Amino acid sequence: MSTPLEPTMVETIKGYDAEKRFKYLVKEVVTNREIWILIDEHGCVMLNTDDEDCVPVWPNKEFAEAWATGEWDTCKAEAISINKWHSRWTHGLEDDGLAIVVFPNENEDGLVIFPDELDFELKQQAKKSK
């Protein structure tokens, strides 16, 4: 379970570029052992890029909830344990041909990667953290 972020820290992190937000997400997910998605009555929220259908993920509840506005105001932030992510989500997303948009900001700007790439980065960070 993660500790709530201070509002000043949230604002600082919002200013990060996509690459820096990706690195932050990897560290936070490994430290807190959870990754955040948004869900609605149909399941996981999806985004579409020109090339890919994507599942957006966030490192902290605060950032996921910040996206639950406008057309997504009925969505809820949900944590997925890192173990469940590795055992079910990575393969499930790959099987469905879905990509991941990492920690998108208000402009829907985020790094688009494949599930196995995120899985690899999370495992590498876990090795460093030991």
Automatic annotation (TrEMBL):
InterPro entries on file: DUF2750
- What protein name does the entry list? DUF2750 domain-containing protein
What is the protein's species of origin?
Answer: Photobacterium profundum (strain SS9)
Give the gene name.
Answer: VV1382
